[in-house]
Specification:
Elements (H helix, E strand, L loop, with lengths): L6 H18 L4 H24 L3 H26 L7 H55 L24 H28 L3 H30 L6
Amino acid sequence: MTIALEPKHIIETAERLQKRIAERFPGSSLLKVAETVTKTAQAADHKSAAIAKVHLPLRAAVWALATALLVGVTATFVRISSAPGFNSVADLLQGVDAAANIVLLLGAGILSIAKLEEQLRRRKGLALVHDLKSLAHVVDMHQLTKDPETLSENAPRTESSPVRKMTRYELGRYLDYSSELLSVIGKIAALYGRRLQDSVVLDAIDGAEDLTTGLSRKIWQKIAILSEQPASKR
């Protein structure tokens, strides 16, 4: 049995997580991020499939040049072989030289167009991965000030300290939701990899997965600290 990452499962997970955040933190900025993650998950398979799809105009141009190459080489040899006095090696070499010029000229055109299709696909794929990385950093920014040590009654505040109204339990849930959002983003990156087999894009996808894993690890360090603290008296 083949085990593959299914887009529908990622979408279901993202939608369920969004509902959980909406029920626990309605109107929060984290909920808006969750909505963006859900929309990204819903569009991920379609977008990656569209990028991986054959570019018909460019492929048509390749086939047209390939046909022109074949016709040109054939016509060259037919013209030379049917010419009066074609009976020497020099005549044959002349035909080979003319055919080689056609092959070089049209072959270069074919390779250029094929390379252009690859570059277009790569650019679009990298743009998708870049958006995922940006989204991961947005999640990280939202949990940046959620420091479990500030729950301590002895934690001094300053005039610029952010307002903290969460209970110990709420802070734990907030951090957990942030970690889950990063995990979903990593799964979306892996989903892109299923469609986009370009080596450069795959390296970028690996980087996105490493990023979400690293950011999630930082959050779990906070959760570990929180679990070791005594329960809040509030």
